[in-house]
Amino acid sequence: MDLLKVVLRHPSGRIGAAIILIFLVLAGLGAVGLTPHDPLKQFVVDRLKPPSLTYWFGTDLLGRDTFSRLMLGISESFIVAFASVAVAATAGTIIGLFAAWWGHLWDGVLMRTMDVLLAFPAILLALLIVAIEGAGMVTSIVAIGIVYTPIFARVVRAPALAIKGREFVEAARTFGSSQGYILTRHLLLNLVAPLTVQITLALAWALLTESGLSFLGLGTQPPAPSLGVMLAESKSMMTRAPWLMIFPGLTIMLAILGFNLLGDALRDILDPRTQGRGA
Amino acid sequence: MPVTAIYGRPANSRAADMNYLTQRLLTFPLVLLGVSLLVFFAIRLVPGDAIIAMLGTEAGLLTDAQRASLEAYFGLDQPIIVQYGRWLAGLFEGNLGISVTYGKPVLEVILARFPLTLELSLLSMLISLAVGIPAGVFAATRADRPSDLLVRLFAMLGQSTPSFVVGLVLIYFLSVTFRMLPAMGSFTPLFEDPIGNLSQMLLPSITLGLSFAAAVTRISRSAMLDVLSDDYVRTARSKGASQRDVVWKHALPNALIPVVTLSGVEFGYLLGGAVIVEQIFALPGLGRLTLDAISQRDYPLVQGAVLFIAFNFLVVNLLVDLAYAALDPRIRLGGK
Predict the structure, then answer these.
(1) Closest in A113, A127, A245 to B168, CB measured
(2) How far does A193 lie from chain B, in Å, by closest CA?
(3) Which one of A20, A110, A123, A142 would you mutate to disrupt binding with B, by most B Cβ within 10 Å of its Cβ?
(4) B50 pLDDT exceeds 80?
């Protein structure tokens, strides 16, 4: 709770947290169906209507309400982002911990494998995985999860190595604490700070990658709206119905901005090296 | 994802940097081998065998004998390790296989698309540096004043805006304000028609350049802040050097080191084909080639393109590390 207070006192932390909170509420309402209109329903007489009191963000070519679709889209995009970061953080933490703990050959094998994954630009690796598995929400989660696993492995390994050599770990070993106990209690607990920062920033990248994949038609499949899908659909009608482009575009930008701001604030607070530099 | 995040450097001690570099050189071939393994076996995970993948539904019309002879022709009757060995041996001769959709050698198809991607990468890098470095320096010299906050705000917004949003907005303004659309479809090579080529490449380059300019701004600002508090800068100031000399002559060269690293990584990334931007602007570059190959299930091409891109990415990153060592006298190989 102390951390929450400090974050809220940090200017960019406050703004970031507020943005994320608003999006979480919209996503939650969208997921349970509490939208102004049915996001998939086609109001045929009201096609391509500009924003109004009835349709806050206008309607698309099929007469579907943009605002309702955005709410559902946010929840789809957030599910993919949160799930894929959960995958990446879990897998990366386990790999990084074991690489540091076992050392030697294991360290080499595990971390070089991570280097192989890092040799691909993120979107390309995701594309390759989608090519194999076929497009869809689960594939997106797996693909983005795999793409960001090496980053977590790296973030965890270096401090884990440092902590492993500290006296209190040595002491715990001589006391006869089990490996599992040492790994979770001593190593993992001390990695909470760097992991928190990384997870927040990774959420921003995951949103970016997810919207990119679905923009290319390789993420969430229509008619389910995702932010990338909505933008891709808006392209051909941008001069006739600019609201179809403006609102999803702003939404993606704000959501990513929220996580970036919060991540930066957390890094300022939790990482003493960058204190007060804000860059 | 900000590229800096992936290639974050280890602790800044001399020994760590030296170790890092030697390690990079030694493991480079290993990582390349790993990449080839991953690409080779990943494609084999695709449901259905290679013959079906190649011929699509027509594979159903094959007699058993035809099938067997095709399998023998492509070496598919051999154990998978032998297949991998043959494929790998072929790579050393530049043989990446035959593209199913183009009916031409994969390498030839890739190299035909590469000049566009190379040009796009160079142009957008130029734009990102031209915008990012001055903005970063400007912000660092006015740290925490309103103008600094403004630059940081823009950098933050830039970092949070996907390139396709930037691209769509640019197209929108162009089409609304000037009632014209960027030339799409066929690509005009630079040496045939420089004006036509540049008018086609300008918007995509700006789109990509602006996305990276945000990262360049942030890195140059924080590097500049670091350097400006260094002892030698203070010495220069106390000797009476003007603010302009201190910033541009004394501080900037050192502050540029992390910027070089970032732009190198960025360049490697761009060479991989900016899939999304090439898609928006309908540019037939490497990224679009890969995307099309995926949707047409042209697996030899997917395999070749992905390998080609990863190879570029790795080589550029290695070169950046070497350049970094050359720029920073403290970590020059062999020299102390």
Answers:
(1) A245
(2) 17
(3) A123
(4) no
Q: Quote ipTM for the complex.
A: 0.84
Within chain B, how many helices (H) and strands (E) appear?
A: 15, 0
Percent share of chain A, pLDDT over 90: 32
CB contact under 8 A, B302 and A115: no
Burial B258-282 (b: 16+ CB within 10 A, else e): bbbbbbbbbbbbbbbbbbbbbbbbe
Closest CA to B139 of B213, B32, B241, B74: B213
Highest mean pLDDT out of B18-32, B75-89, B97-111? B97-111
Task: Assign A85 a pLDDT band (cuts: 50, 70, 90).
Answer: very high
Phi-psi region for residue A176, left (φ > 0), alpha (ψ -120 to 50) or beta?
left
Taking the whole predicted model, whether its pTM rises above 0.95 is answered as no
Residue A245, classed as helix, strand or coil, is helix
Q: Measure the CA–CA gap between A272 and A68, rounded to whole angstroms.
A: 43
Q: Which residue of B has its CA nearest to A129?
A: B42
pLDDT at B14: 53
Contacts of A127 in chain B (CB under 8 A): 275, 290-291, 294
Q: How many Å apart are CA A210 and CA A224, to the nearest integer?
A: 14
Give the count of Cβ contacts less than 8 A between chain A and B.
Answer: 138
Show the tokens assigned to B59. 């594979």
Q: Any idea of the CA torsion for A154, A190, A267, B129, to the nearest 10 degrees?
A: -20
Task: Give the residues across from A59 on adjacent strands.
Answer: A65
Residue from A117, A209, A216, A226 whose CB has the most chain B CBs within 10 Å, to mutate: A216
**What mean pLDDT comes out for the span B232-246?**
80
Task: Find the CB nearest A119 among B160, B302, B314.
Answer: B314
- What pLDDT was estimated at residue A241? 83
The residue whose two tokens read 């959420």 is A203
Q: What is the largest CA-CA distance in chain B?
A: 88
Query: Which residue of A12, A23, A128, A151 to mutate against B (max B Cβ within 10 Å)?
Result: A128
Question: What confidence tier does A55 reach under pLDDT thresholds 50, 70, 90?
Answer: confident
Distances (CA, A) of A1 to A5, A6, A7, A12, A102: 7, 9, 10, 18, 35
The total of other beta-carbon atoms located within 10 Å of residue B189's CB is: 12
- B327 in contact with A at a CB cutoff of 8 Å? no
Q: In A, which residues are within 8 Å of B276 by CB distance?
A: 123, 212, 215-216
Distance, in angstroms, between A195 CA and closest chain B CA? Answer: 13
Q: To the nearest whole angstrom, how far is the Cα of A237 from the nearest Cα of chain B?
A: 10
Q: Using an 8 Å Cβ cutoff, are B128 and B210 in contact?
A: yes
CA distance B115 to B94: 18
Residue A65 pairs in a beta bridge with A59
Task: Answer whether B309 touches A (CB < 8 Å).
Answer: yes
Report which of residues B128 and B7 the model is more confident about. Answer: B128
The chain B residue lying nearest A16, using CA atoms, is B156
The span from the CA of B320 to the CA of B326, in Å, is 10
Which two structure tokens, joined as six digits, stand for B94?
Answer: 């530049």
**Position B16 confidence tier, pLDDT thresholds 50, 70, 90:** low
Q: Peptide bond preceding A248: is omega within 30 degrees of 0, i.e. cis? A: no
pLDDT of B13 above 60: no
The predicted structure's pLDDT at residue A79: 93
